[in-house]
Amino acid sequence: MSYKDLVKSWHEAVQALDRENWGLALELFSGIEEPFSKICFNMGCVYLLIGNPEAALLALDQTVSKDSCLAVGFFLRGEVHFHLERFPEALSDYSMALANLRNNTFIDYKQLGLRYKLQTWEVLYNMAAVQCHLGLWEEATRSLEKAISRRPEGNSTPLEAAAEQVQKRIFLDLLQFPKGEIFRPPKKDVEQLHAKDFLGKPKVISSVNPNDKYTGFEPLRPQESHNGIPFSSIKGPHKRPHLNQVGKPVSPLQGSPPPEGIGKGSTVCPEISVPSIQGEVSSSPDTSINLSVQCTFTMTLEVKRGASVPVLRALLKDKLLQQLECAQLSYSHQDSGSFIPISGEEACKKMWHEAAANRRLRLHCQGTECCGGRRVLYQMVAQYSYSAKGPEDLEFQKGDTLDILSEVNEEWLEGHCSGHIGIFPKCFAQMASVTKEEPPIEPPMIYSF
Question: GO molecular-function annotation terms (predicted)?
Fold first, then answer.
């Protein structure tokens, strides 16, 4: 039997005893496997309550055999022997109880779960009562004299009157152990029997979305100083915000979903009607090319080879539903992979010339307003790499430039990096330095389709 099951049965038996349901209490105590001395003592008390002193005596025999120093066990067994008129055995039990008191005035069993204080003078008095029945009147007188000397001050028990009775050869009444008092299980162990809800009901504590209804729970993730990862400068647990995690992707363009047919991380090739603009090359199907545009959302467009800059802007405007006249277009170099700005038609023709041997072209669109029109507060530089732990996190590498869009709380920021928007711990980055000779560089905004 586990300790938890033992405490549970013990507690239920005590509750039954308090309700005066002796049968149930005895059944529960008897069901405990390998009972220790306290349980045996309790069973003896229950047997006395139901009027079965013989069974009580057997239980008390087990009590003192399991704990030979339990003075109250000998005291109670002496009482049972006395009522069964086994006076020599009773005198022996009281002598053992007195020896286990070890010259102390009393033993308080409260800390062991028994609301009883065994007094030395009580044991000596009962010894005198037993000695009277054995005809040992002189010994009974000496026992009473010792009881009077060990009686605490303020106690009004008439031991002197009892001594006079002994002188007159009158038997003494036995002092009895209080009925119904038993050893109870530790209170702290009983309290731990029932499960406790230490977390409580989860609720949104912080969100960048004022309409956030998310009520899930995600444990805090304190950052540890390990392998170069810093501790947060704020003491206490991280106040990690909860963000919207609804299944549908939310576009950063004023909180509205992306245009139809465009999804985050998806690749589409819609049929586009290109407006007739001077500089457009032949519309033969053989001259078409797949144009991959990197924004907050990445998509693939089919565009005629040799399209001019106004044509490309018109295509982006048609898909993003935004004015992009001031946006900076760049294309990816086929060999180096670096983005080269398209400053005019000459640069545009050079782009098509370099893309002549390939039917795919990667275009980068960045504007003066970043992330779907949201204003960039400032920029920071990543001092450590951060791996996303959830869909709302922003993943970046050491040295990346981060566009800060909002300050979620003292420890978390919302930022933008490499076409992605998310939150990250503030301690992973520091403010980007700006020289006095040059004005601060406007952070690039990456539009996605």
Answer: superoxide-generating NADPH oxidase activator activity
Lookup result for tokens 């779960």? 113
Counting runs of H as helices and runs of E as strands, what totals does the chain give? 12, 13
> Domain with 417 in it: what CATH number?
2.30.30.40
Structural domain of 126: 3-187
CA distance 226 to 222: 12
d(CA 431, CA 168): 102
Q: Other CB atoms closer than 10 Å to residue 42's CB: what's the count?
A: 28
299 & 399 share domain: no
CA distance 38 to 23: 18
For position 40, which CATH number holds?
1.25.40.10
Each residue's pLDDT tens digit, 219-239: 444 444 445 555 555 554 555
84: helix, coil or strand? coil
CA distance 157 to 132: 19
pTM exceeds 0.70 = no
Give me the phi and psi of 302, to 5 degrees please.
Answer: -100, 120
In whole angstroms, give the CA distance from residue 442 to residue 368.
6
**Per-residue pLDDT at 161 exceeds 80:** yes
Dihedral angle over CA of 149, 152, 157, 161, nearest 10: 20
On whether residue 259 sits in a domain, the answer given is no
Contact 381, 432 (CB under 8 A): yes
Do 346 and 295 lie in one domain? The reply is yes
Q: Is residue 90 over pLDDT 60?
A: yes
What is the count of structural domains for the chain?
Answer: 3
